[in-house]
Design a protein that fits this description.
Blueprint (H helix, E strand, L loop, with lengths): L2 H18 L12 E2 L3 E8 L7 E6 L6 E8 L7 E5 L2 E2 L2 E7 L4 E8 L6 E11 L2 E12 L2 E4 L2 E4 L2 E4 L10 E3 L5 E4 L1 E4 L4 E4 L4 E4 L3 E5 L5 E5 L2 E4 L2 E5 L6 E5 L15 E4 L6 E4 L1 E4 L3 E6 L9 E4 L2 E5 L2 E6 L13 E4 L2 E5 L2 E6 L2 E6 L2 E4 L12 E4 L1 E2 L7 E2 L2 E6 L2 E4 L5 E4 L8 E5 L2 E2 L6 H4 L3 E2 L2 E2 L5 E3 L4 E4 L45
Parallel strand pairs: 2-10, 11-15, 14-17, 15-18, 16-21, 17-22, 18-23, 21-24, 22-25, 23-26, 24-27, 25-28, 26-29, 27-30, 28-31, 29-32, 30-33, 31-34, 32-35, 33-36, 34-39, 35-40, 36-41, 39-42, 40-43, 42-44, 43-45
Antiparallel strand pairs: 1-3, 3-8, 4-7, 4-9, 5-6, 5-8, 9-10, 12-13, 19-20, 37-38, 46-47
Length: about 500
């Protein structure tokens, strides 16, 4: 090795040593500054360890400062834990900060208290001066529904202690409900959710062993419906399905849990005045209806912030006919902000989407490069042979709009056209290349006319004055008269508007 090579290797080592060197001659005097005066944990649940809150302590005194002691005021009784610059403990001595430098304090909280506020102070002693920073947490009691997976060979099963709904059950809003793992509603069981109920899904992960015995981890907190789910809220008291994180970074963050899964034999499911947010796939519906009712009816419901898709329909029903009820009936709903599709239909099936808004814009965490609606009438289970299924897909009075040049595409095999894909009185965005394939499917629909949402960046999909969607829809007043909001002051009047939200003059 040359002298120059040894020198180049030595310089980084010396730099690391110098950068980590403890400041010399620190003084025990001076006033510290803090990134915030209160560490506030938003609503959290008993027995769940919270995410860390961070406090940055700055030294702007002009000298290196020695903090002789940092401690939590409640001592051994505290329900908080603390880490300072990698040192874990609730009473730490001699923390030195160079002039112009900072240290990080991370605080966690685990409480068994219920339905009350908890406060604590972090104390900093520098010479004769003592400074304090308040920690405040709101603690909620909750019902915990916990299930765990085990793998035997190629099969997954629930561990014996796992929760599942064994009988007809009503969930009430008196406490939040935490779903931690894959919770089942078995066939023959009905779960009814009352208005105002909040269901929080944890980011439970499980590692599935692949053919090489490697672990592939995935999110497995979700609701699996083989029976019936009746979740009917009200305009004033919606039902919420969402992640369990309250900290601000996660309030609108996708992919925190897996979603709602309605399986082959499920029936008579209803979601009305619900919000489904922050999952991987918001709602997945398998196969066709098994009785005279839609498998899933969605009304006045919003599905948003999905890490993959908003609504997924899996048909795979060789005998599907147009006389059967749809697998999904959607009226006056909004699906938005999905990293891939707002609607994905695989293997045909029957679906009816009415007066709904599908909006997918490349903002914040939702950049994509594919159309938001994809409808296919085939599927390949082995990667080579495609199987074609009957497909009856109707969009009526719907807005399908977003950032991409194409926002709806159909996918068929050569010689196997769709049984029916129809868009009546809809607003769609199409590229010149795709328009010849979609144009024959349109009935009195509007192409490439901006619906003029009030503010799509803030997910406000009300229509502005002059929107081409106003009074352009098919009159469905014999079917329903309210819009997504479901309030007397938002009834559809005159001509029906296209989309989930009837136009009303916006407040200035």
């Amino acid at each position: 090795m040359t002298t120059l090579s040894r020198f180049l290797l030595l310089v980084p080592v010396l730099w690391i040593c110098w950068s980590c060197e403890r400041p010399t001659n620190p003084v025990e005097e001076g006033t510290l500054t803090f990134s915030q005066d209160t560490l506030a944990f938003d609503s959290i649940f008993t027995t769940l360890l919270t995410p860390s809150e961070r406090l940055i302590v700055h030294n702007e005194t002009g000298r290196a400062v020695n903090i002789s002691r940092v401690w939590l005021e409640s001592g051994e009784k505290t329900r908080f834990s603390m880490i300072i610059n990698g040192r874990q403990g609730n009473d730490i001595s001699d923390v030195v900060i160079a002039n112009g430098d900072s240290v990080y304090v991370f605080v966690n909280f685990l409480s068994t208290l219920r339905d009350e506020f908890v406060e604590e102070y972090i104390n900093f002693q520098v010479g004769e001066e003592q400074q304090r920073v308040l920690i405040r947490a709101r603690v909620l009691d909750a019902y915990f529904l916990r299930a765990r997976l085990a793998q035997e060979g190629n099969f997954l099963s629930l561990t014996p202690e796992s929760f599942f709904f064994r009988q007809d059950t009503t969930l009430t809003p008196d406490k939040p409900i935490i779903i931690d793992g894959p919770v089942f509603i078995p066939e023959g069981v009905t779960v009814t959710i009352l208005p105002g109920t909040e269901l929080f899904f944890t980011p439970y992960q499980f590692g599935v062993r692949d053919s090489n015995q490697g672990l592939v981890f995935g999110l497995y907190s979700f609701l699996i419906v083989d029976g019936t789910l009746q979740a009917v809220g009200t305009a004033d008291q919606p039902i919420e399905f969402k992640g369990s994180r309250f900290d601000s970074l996660y309030l609108e963050n996708p992919a925190q849990w897996r979603g709602l899964n309605f399986r082959k034999n499920s029936r008579n499911n209803v979601l009305q005045f619900c919000e489904v947010k922050n999952a991987l796939i918001g709602i997945q519906v398998d196969s066709s209806s098994v009785n005279e009712n839609p498998k899933l009816t969605l009304r006045q419901t919003e599905v948003k912030n999905m890490g993959v898709h908003g609504i997924v329909g899996l048909g795979f029903a060789p005998g599907q006919t147009d006389n059967e009820p749809p697998a999904i009936l959607m009226e006056n709903c909004i699906v938005n902000s999905c990293k891939q599709r707002t609607v994905l239909i695989l293997g045909g099936g029957k679906y009816e989407f009415v007066n709904s808004t599908f909006a997918n814009f490349n903002v914040a965490r939702f950049s994509r490069r594919i159309p938001q609606v994809l409808a296919t009438n085939w599927y390949s289970f082995d990667g080579s042979t495609g199987i074609v299924y009957p497909a009856y897909v109707d969009f009526v009075n719907c807005i399908i709009w977003g950032s991409e040049e194409d926002e709806i595409v159909k996918d068929t095999l050569i010689g196997a056209p769709f049984t029916r894909l129809r868009l009546e009185r809809c607003m769609v965005r199409l590229s010149p290349d795709n328009e010849p394939f979609i144009r024959p499917l349109l009935v009195e629909s509007l192409v490439n006319q901006d619906p003029l949402f009030n503010d799509y960046f803030f997910r406000d999909y009300r229509l502005k004055e002059g929107s081409p969607a106003i009074n352009a829809g098919l009159d469905l007043s014999a079917r329903f008269q309210d819009d997504y909001r479901g309030r007397p002051d938002s009834l559809r009047y005159d001509g029906f508007d296209i989309g989930a939200l009837e136009y009303y003059p916006l407040e200035k």
